[in-house]
Every structure is written in C-alpha cells, then in structure tokens.
C-alpha cells in the first residue's frame, strides 16, 4: 500500500515536471517570436519614418 502511494506521488511529480517543461518551451518560443515581430515592426516603422 505504501509502495503504491509512493508510486502515485512519483508519477504525479513526473507529469507536473513535464507540464512545467512544456510551459517553459512555449514561453521561450513565444518570447522569441515576439522579439522577432517587434524587431520587424520597429524596422518597418524606421523605414516609413525615414
């Protein structure tokens, strides 16, 4: 019974760690895309205003 509970705890820890990993990956990608987009927009604005 104790072993089963430890197994369950371990499984939930693993899955939550995976979820956190996915969140980090998503966050990094969105930040990267956001940086690219803002750089492009700023570049285009500079072209327009020059």
From TrEMBL:
Top-level division of the source organism's lineage? Bacteria
**Name the UniProt record assigns to this protein:** Uncharacterized protein
Annotated source species: Loigolactobacillus bifermentans DSM 20003
Q: Print the organism lineage.
A: Bacteria, Bacillati, Bacillota, Bacilli, Lactobacillales
